[in-house]
Amino acid sequence: MEKRATREAYGEALLELGERYPNVVVLDADLAKSTTSIKFAEAFPKRFIECGVAEQSMMGTAAGLATTGKICYTGSFAIFATQRALEMVRNVIAYSNLNVKFCPTHAGITVGADGSSHQTVEDIAIMRAIPNMRVVVPADYFEAKAAIKAVAEIEGPVFIRLGRLPIPLIFDEHYEFKLGRAIKLREGNDVTIFAIGLMVSAGLEAAASLAKEGIEAEVIDVSTLKPLDTEVILGSAAKTHAVVTAEEHSIIGGLGSAIAECLSENLPTAMRRVGIKDRFGLSGTPDELLKHYGLTSEDIVKEAKDLLQRG
Amino acid sequence: MDREKLRQFLEEKARVLRWDIIKMIGEAGSGHPGGSLSAADIVAVLYFHHMRHRPDDPKWPERDRFILSKGHACPVLYATLAECGYFPREILWTLRKFNSILQGHPDMRRVPGVEISSGSLGLGLAAANGMASAGKMDGKDYRVYVMIGDGESQEGVVWEASMFAAHYKLDNLVAILDNNGLQIDGPVSQVMEIQPVVDKWRAFGWRVLEVDGHNVLDIADTLVEADKTRGQPMMIVAHTIKGKGVSFMENVVDFHGKAPTKEQMEEALKELS
Predict the structure, then answer these.
(1) CB-CB neighbors (< 8 A) of B137 in chain A
(2) Is 0.95 surpassed by the pTM of this model?
(3) Residue A177 falls within a domain, yes or no?
(4) What is the structure's pLDDT at A310?
(5) With an 8 Å Cβ cutoff, is B117 touching chain A?
């Protein structure tokens, strides 16, 4: 199965955005090679701003640029973009609904060997809590590329969470991203697997395993966590009455929380959350870490069967 | 306008701003008089003499920009914008009240003429860098003025942003330090020393000028001199007195963030009339 990292989509999408919108400006904080924004820097050097290792300054600069009508894309690692620079993001950009897009890479634990200081398990929770902020977690390269391009047309701040690890392709270049739309990837009547990011392909694998045991799982790529596609979520839960969420993020404040909030207010449904259980990361290979933190398709299968009391 | 008339005109504007500042904060019952009063002469010179701006067209793309990075001193900015005609003067008396456009710190989405929301210290200089960079990128000749506080200079992002401005040779950017020497917890020198501040900014690659921040003609001349700078950003270290213009507030730390009582307000207004 062909794999590509969602971060690769960043540089590729920026190249297209640079052609299409003369007012797109890209900023980075000494990570342009890692985030892949270097591609834009080489093609449009006058519209690329290297900010040095200074994420707070970068976000403030982006805010100032946005007041003049620029569409700003800022790159960094997710940990630094959402946490070192958080107060700038909240107090200047989100508060005033300025047109700054955050597309940080290296999110989650699959950064791997760099260890906990460079991993994020709480970035979605933080960004989701900020008013005006929209939150997107693409499931593959094509969804990431489509989302990065599409949000240029959306006024205000958008957080798009990207990863370093090459992950299986699910969509193709014809995929059209729509903010706030969840995508049903597999139909099923017994259990719904809501997933984001690299856990979408794990969810599809889990569904294939479950099918061998006679359990038909519905798999939904939630991709936009905010605004949440409550219609699709409630529709599926009303059919299956059993929900498993799966995310490369803490079970606190991310997809699992968002789905639980939606269901408990509208349609209380038995559910399980596959995610990081309130812990920091470790160094290791991505596969070792995914296994250690319980983020494999087998973990989804186990939770689904537990839930259905079919274990 | 000859210099004596200009001096009288600007001093009168600054007096009106100070009167409004006291009235606004007195009516609100909370706010930051000290740092609003210390900045009044500088802000008056910028808006009533130096900057190109259009109160009837606040988003005019060619306008010069002023950013009040020390956002807690917003009464001076609100009073100035009202005096310029950006919004009706009566709104000033709603400062800090429920659903007023004039929040305790400036909101760019609600107040005509406010260029960026501020209040969280240190953000203004970085935002000014963005506006100045955009001006360079688009070949526009507008200028960006940003006022920071001396206490505010303790924020790390100020120094991140200072490196940025020098690195990119933002000579369309002028920062003004309201160097009044006091912050909430006491004298800046005791809380966290920032001196020698002139040397620091020079070392960070800026051209630095000093001025008496209460001499309107000197301020006006210094701004003209600053605008002549090419190839580097400009810092004007303005030596000011916290609470300037109200005898019992001058150099009194407590008036950083405390409103006058009704009696104090009346007394101050009398002094400023």
Answers:
(1) 25, 46-47
(2) yes
(3) no
(4) 75
(5) yes
